[in-house]
TrEMBL record:
This is Aldehyde oxidase and xanthine dehydrogenase molybdopterin binding protein. PANTHER family: ALDEHYDE OXIDASE 1-RELATED, XANTHINE DEHYDROGENASE. Gene3D superfamilies: Aldehyde oxidase/xanthine dehydrogenase, a/b hammerhead, Aldehyde oxidase/xanthine dehydrogenase, molybdopterin binding domain. Keywords: Molybdenum, Oxidoreductase. InterPro entries: Ald_Oxase/Xan_DH_a/b (IPR000674), Ald_Oxase/Xan_DH_a/b_sf (IPR036856), Ald_Oxase/xanthine_DH-like (IPR016208), AldOxase/xan_DH_MoCoBD1 (IPR008274), AldOxase/xan_DH_MoCoBD2 (IPR046867), AldOxase/xan_DH_Mopterin-bd_sf (IPR037165). SUPFAM superfamilies: CO dehydrogenase molybdoprotein N-domain-like, Molybdenum cofactor-binding domain. Residues 23-127 form the Aldehyde oxidase/xanthine dehydrogenase a/b hammerhead domain. One of its GO terms (molecular function) is oxidoreductase activity. It holds the Pfam family Ald_Xan_dh_C.
Length: 696
């Protein structure tokens, strides 16, 4: 008699590490304590541009508990001399205010912090430039935008099409700098053992950190080990190494002891990345029936003087809607500011705010329902590449969302619905995010006791990666989940793609499935003859991914919002949020709903609250803590719902899944801004939606 193990994929399995997290057994980077541990506190530049003339550490070295004071004059040299963001303490040049220019190492964190405040630095300050403007003389066209898209794309004659269009929308939208602010701040413990370096680090990719650090210090990657079993959020800010990690390794090398360095919340606003501010001009031309004839999307954004990072702001516009004439461009200016980096759904988040706001304006100009306008402009194939979509169910999301939200019969007139003191309105916007996969390796082992161990250097940044990989492995092994153990978060494990770009589960899951399949074949070959030390098999997905068929692979969604705006004060409350998504097969509905709702809440935060304010005089962000940089929480929208339509896409990966960690934020801010216009008649084109922008 044969038995069939029920499928685990698709079930709402509780997090396998849940008890560890709620009981405190889960250890994060800062919580490790090697023997003979010392503490490092950075010294930050107090000018935005210039050169260090002198560093006086005499008073510092006399302090109790101080082990060393490190700056460019005595710091160990790095092997990599690219002069970029990670060339910490290698030069007297200052590229932005808050840049790490030194560190004090002491026996206790208190001693190190007190002593760091005594370091005296003399600068030759230079005039700085920290303001992004659409007419900045330093604007240029980058060769590519993140990760490797061409900066500019043009099809047809968009200028002629706009001139001939009977209906045109031409508007400028802007989004501010935003900081990721994960719950767990960045932290690193660095320990050298001869030629080997061990790093306990809060990271989204242990393998990537290992390779980067090895190159910086001129070491074989095998000599670097990065341990990161638990990560308290990242939102992109932990996707690549930042200066604090290099500083910890330099300090540990200098003093010959393990060194712990924790980035404070305030320091994170200078040294761990942020979302670039954007200025975007969107022009849409349409015929009388609302069908697009031209799309032009121009994006202006910033980077630093020491590293180019160009966000792909206008890239989603290239594939969202059908139009015979189209142009998307990116212009970048390198300022005396910290280097921007990834923040949840980079490119798609600010870019779709502009596009979906413009689509709402076009619907009004055409006298069409905003849902209907989007459906009328649905493309048959990818408008930019001509490739077929592996699956595209945006229309299904729009229609299902409209049905559930009660969209039918919506009065399009703005500013006419009252509920007590509130003006009430509803809005809609589309969401999208690419479905990526990165090459990864995994191993699967049959243990003598009948259990299985799967190993891969994946990262769980709070998304539930351990849990879904356990489900994926259990199904591939045809075993119950309680017989499968998944080990992640260590660069000593098989190399894995980082947790970013919503490609984690797709990338790691593919490798896990292939390793499990190889193990089952090996077990079949042995016909049940299992040696005392078990049997192991491994897989590498590089060739599989390189040889995959060409499709346009994207997830889609529709966001619906209802807002209430106080008619006297302009205070805006989001009353309802509904997101409907098409993201392939959902591996775990419990963790999926959590990710969708988390993204939508972060989109609400973007719409109403988040804004990093630059002080042009000093070249620094004024609001650099939670007292002044405000973020939304669950209490800020009590009626929030996320659901998905069934989608069977065989062109993705063995699970048939698409990434969901980032699409939830895309479109949410636009849906809220569109709802605010519907409520008040005031069109807000620059985020966040503050009281002063609504009270006239």
């Amino acid at each position: 008699m044969t038995t069939t193990t029920p499928s685990s994929v698709g079930s709402g399995l509780d997090r396998v590490e849940g008890l560890d997290k709620v009981t405190g057994r889960a250890r994060y980077a800062f919580e490790y304590s090697p023997r003979d541990l010392a503490y490092a506190v950075p010294v930050q530049a107090s000018v935005a541009r210039g050169e260090i003339r002198s560093v006086d550490v005499d008073a510092v070295l006399k302090r109790p508990g101080v082990i060393a004071a490190i700056w460019y004059g005595n710091a160990p040299r790095l092997a990599s001399g690219d002069g970029g963001e990670l060339a910490v303490l290698q030069s007297p040049r200052v590229a932005y205010r808050g840049q790490y220019i030194g560190a004090v190492v002491a026996e206790t964190l208190h001693d190190a912090r007190e002593a760091a405040g005594l370091v005296r630095v003399e600068y030759a300050a230079e005039r700085h430039d920290v303001e992004l403007r659409a007419d900045h003389p330093g604007l240029y066209r980058p060769e590519v935008v993140n990760p490797n898209f061409p900066a500019d794309v043009e099809q047809g004659d968009p200028d002629a099409a706009l001139a001939a269009a009977p209906i045109v929308v031409d508007a400028v939208y802007s989004t501010p700098a935003e900081h990721q602010n994960p719950m767990e701040p960045h932290a690193t413990i660095a320990a050298w053992d001869g030629d080997g370096l061990t790093l306990h680090d809060s990271t989204q990719g242990a393998s990537a950190v290992r390779d980067t650090v090895a190159a910086l210090f001129g070491m074989p990657p095998a000599n670097v080990r990065v341990i990161s079993p638990h990560v308290g959020g990242g939102f992109g800010s932990k996707g690549t190494p930042h200066p604090h990690l290099v500083l910890a390794a330099l300090a540990a090398k200098q003093v010959g002891r393990p060194v712990k360095l924790a980035v404070t919340r305030q320091q994170m606003f200078a040294v761990t990345g942020y979302r670039t501010p954007t200025i975007q001009r969107v022009r849409l031309g349409a015929d009388a029936g609302g069908r697009l004839t031209a799309i032009v999307h121009e994006a202006f954004e910033q980077s630093s003087t020491i590293k180019e990072f160009a966000e792909q702001t206008a890239v989603p516009t290239r594939m969202m809607y059908a139009a015979p004439a189209r142009r998307t461009t990116h212009r970048l200016v390198r300022l005396d500011v910290p280097t921007p980096s990834w923040m949840r759904a980079p490119g798609e988040t600010p870019g779709m705010f502009a596009l979906e706001s413009a689509m709402d304006e076009l619907a009004i100009a055409c006298g069409l329902d905003p849902v209907e306008l989007r459906i009328r402009n649905e493309p048959d194939t990818d408008p930019e590449t001509g490739l077929p979509f592996s699956s595209r169910n945006l229309v299904a999301c729009l229609r299902e969302g409209a049905r559930r939200f009660g969209w039918a019969g919506r009065d399009p007139a703005p500013g006419v619905r009252r509920r007590g003191r509130q003006l009430v309105g509803t809005g809609v916007a589309a969401s999208t995010y690419p479905a990526y996969r990165g090459s990864s390796q995994a191993s699967a082992r049959a243990e003598p006791d009948g259990r299985f161990t799967v190993r891969i250097a994946a990262a769980d940044i709070g998304t539930g990666a351990r849990t879904v990989l356990t489900q994926i492995a259990a199904d591939a092994l045809r075993a119950p989940v309680d017989r499968v153990r998944v080990e992640i978060g260590d660069s000593a494990l098989p190399t894995a793609a980082l947790a970013g770009g919503s490609m984690g589960t797709a990338s790691w899951g593919t490798a896990v499935v292939r390793a499990c399949e190889a193990l089952l074949k090996e077990l079949d070959r042995r016909d049940g003859d299992l040696p005392a030390d078990g049997v192991e098999a491994s897989a590498d997905t590089t060739e599989e991914i390189r040889g995959q068929q060409r499709f346009a692979r994207h997830a889609f969604g529709a966001q619906f919002a209802e807002v209430g705006v106080d008619a006297d004060t302009g205070e805006t409350r989001v009353l309802r949020l509904l997101g409907v998504f098409a993201a392939g097969r959902i591996v775990n509905p419990k963790t999926a709903r959590s990710q969708f709702i988390g993204g939508m809440t972060m989109g609400l935060s973007m719409a109403l609250l988040e804004e990093s304010v630059m002080d042009r005089e000093f070249g620094d962000y004024l609001n650099h803590d939670f007292a002044q940089y405000h973020i939304a929480a669950c209490a800020d929208v009590r009626d929030i719902e996320a659901l998905w339509v069934e989608e069977d896409d065989p062109h993705l990966n063995p699970m048939g899944s698409k990434g969901i960690g980032e699409i939830g934020i895309v479109g949410t801010a636009a849906a809220i801004a569109n709802a605010v216009h519907h409520a008040t008649g005031v069109r807000i084109r620059d985020l966040p939606i503050r009281l002063d922008k609504l009270v006239r």
